[in-house]
Input
Amino acid sequence: MNAHEIDYNIHGEEMQYVEIELDPQESVVAESGGFMMMNDGIVMNTIFGDGANKEPGLMGKLFSAGKRLLTGEGLFMTLFTNEGSGKKKVSFAAPYPGKIIPIDLSEIAGKFVCQKDAFLCAAKGVSVGIEFSKKLGRGLFGGEGFIMEKLEGDGLAFVHAGGNMSKKELQPGEILKVDTGCIVGFTKDIDYDIEFVGGIKNTIFGGEGLFFAKLTGPGTVFIQSLPFSRLAARVLALAPQTGNKRRGEGSILGGIGDLLDGDNRI
Output
């Protein structure tokens, strides 16, 4: 194997974290901000690019970092290496309520395509790159734009799904239609396209957007019930509009209900 062989345990139900066990000189690479805790003896280093073994030299690192900029991520990632004696553990937490999904790239022909903010961490040697859409319609209306993230190699990677996660195994020619924001990722043989919802009433009043994501097998698809964009939109809709004033939540009285509750702040 080119990637380091790591062991892991996933803890929790709604707010999960993954605990990774490293042998001496084994490493795991992670996005900035995902770190939770680690044993003494593990050394943390900020690296340029994704740390994949197959990209030595300055130009390789610049190319790797450039790919990360296109996906909306930062130039740098963090490498955690066990430089002590004996096994050590390091943990990474999910950024919001949901599920952490382990992806063994050696079992899926070495490639997994996912949305740009799904990646959490991976064994050193896994390449974190970009996947360009070759279809104009998917790029313009697919919800993820022309660029998604791809994980390549033969090691373990971990991605995060918001809310609950559904794993679908599609047979050759089998089609699954999904909200564009609900896709976590899929294996490399899945054909990803978009389809117009259709119907004037559906388009104008349906509230589900103009397009479905159309996924055609064979392959495996991971679907999330709560995309972060949907969660953020709901939070924003309930946020105070001006100063400390708030809207009456779930009440037909609205602001009058706030006065009756004793919240008469202006």
